[in-house]
Amino acid sequence: MISRTIVRLGVRSVFGRWRGALLFVLPLVLIAVSVLVRVLVGENETGAQHTLQGLGLVVIVPLVALLATSGLLAPEIDDGSVSYLLAKPISRYTIVMSKLVVAAVCVVVFAAVPLFIAGLVMLTSSPSLAVGFGVGSVAGGLAYCALFALLSVMSRHAVVIGLIYLLIWEGLLGGLLDGVRWLSITRWSEAVIGELADLELVEDLPVTYAVIATAVVLVLGTWLTGQRLRAFNLTGDE
Amino acid sequence: MSSPSDSEPAGAPTGVIHDLGYRPYGGPRLGERAVARAFFVTGLRNTYGLGRSGRSKVLPFILLGVMLLPALILVGVLVQARNILGLNEQIVAYSTYPLTTQLLISVFVASQAPALISRDLRFRTITLYLARPMRRTTYVLVRLASLTVATFLLIGAPLLLMYVGGLLADLPVGRETGRFLGAIVGAALLAACLSGLAALVAALTVRRGLAVAAVIVVLLVSYTVVATIQGISGDAGRPAVGEVAGLFSPYTLVNGVQVFLFDSPAATNTPPSSDAMGLVYLLAVVLTVGGAIGGLLARYRTVHP
């Protein structure tokens, strides 16, 4: 199901040039802010929760997922070298799964673990908040990876479309309109975190629905990406 | 078969450049200034997709429309319900508007900076530009000017709409004009800071997608971090930390400068409270723009035509 060679190549393309540096900067910024918050207000549950949610879950997790996923498929499609990969007798689903494994590892290493550490730094006495945010960010991050992978095989402007989706739908409208919670990956992971850490981050969103919805996005995104790659058309636009 | 050298006597010319009668360009040759002017106008048009494919026009014009929409609604409410609600000033202050709509401004800058800058490097168009009588410095400054003016138009258009609407709703002319002019200066500073940073990031990578993501990461993460720190330091009763933090995001920085220079209502938790801090904010704006220009010039010094 997973091809080790593709995983190895994927790791190299994610950490090539500038992308790797950006991936390292994001968690460092998060941990630096958490240390500053701890120094400023001590162990304060509201402060910790606001920081982890507003900076970690809403900004860092989706951006890490976007940076990791957009480094896997889009550059190859862009310069046409994907045809060499597609010419190999490997199932297209295996290709997608192998690439997503790399993205998933990136999400865990550069988003979930830093969120967990930041949670521990800010609230050492009750680690359930840190655990909740760690687990929730894995769930949300994986769903984002599947979604962005699908975007990157559907359009050459995947990064721009993904960012607009993140900023406008998840960020701007998600904050203004309550109904968006039924169709927002970040809100789903907030429901999961709420269940684990015994908080109320998002109102009136059953955790069962959140888990099922996240799983559906993950599976459907991966499957559709493979489906799309099966009948991939190597034509340029513009 | 004999070669030409056999039949011709030694010493005679062996090659002739034939005059085929093509007519050379005999008109006036415009210098660097005209090239720079044309280049500036083309760059400005390109940021809004004019002169590019229909697809590239979609995003900038949608963003411009969405920028104007809240201003239009605010003006409508102001004109219609001024007496009912007892309003005597703009519902949202001019200086707060760019902060409220900052996501849209960030997307515009992030999508258009690579369109102007990364593509020239990636497709080596820069070779052709530098072959003209235009120096590298001019190329960098003109590109930056196009981006800055385009961003300024995006930020300034809704402010102008609010100003005109405010005058139509009979708000005091003198006061509104003063506030509007202050906000326009702020918009120009914000456009310069954002364009400088975005252009610098875009010049460091040739991949368009990565450049877009990198600019968004820089602008969005810096703003979120600053907003988090400002919120917490305000609550914790340590506003000085928040004031220093405000220096690190273009949006809070320019808002602080507007509070300092024009006494605008603050849009952040911890605006600069003392004159010294205000001067530091002003200095930070100068350093941001100057540093971005310096960085760009240094980057382009190593570009080989």
UniProtKB/TrEMBL annotation, chain A:
Say which domain of life the source belongs to. Bacteria
Q: Which UniProt keywords apply?
A: Membrane, Transmembrane, Transmembrane helix
State the organism of origin: Nocardioides szechwanensis
Can you tell me where the transmembrane regions are? Answer: 21-41, 53-74, 95-123, 129-151, 158-177, 207-226
MF (Gene Ontology): ABC-type transporter activity
One Gene Ontology cellular component annotation held by this UniProt entry: plasma membrane
Q: What is this protein called?
A: ABC-2 type transport system permease protein
Automatic annotation (TrEMBL), chain B:
Q: Which UniProt keywords apply?
A: Membrane, Transmembrane, Transmembrane helix
Taxonomically, the superkingdom here is: Bacteria
For this UniProt entry, which segments traverse the membrane?
Answer: 58-79, 99-117, 138-160, 180-203, 210-232, 279-298
What name appears for this protein in its UniProt entry? ABC-2 type transport system permease protein
Q: Which organism is it from?
A: Nocardioides szechwanensis
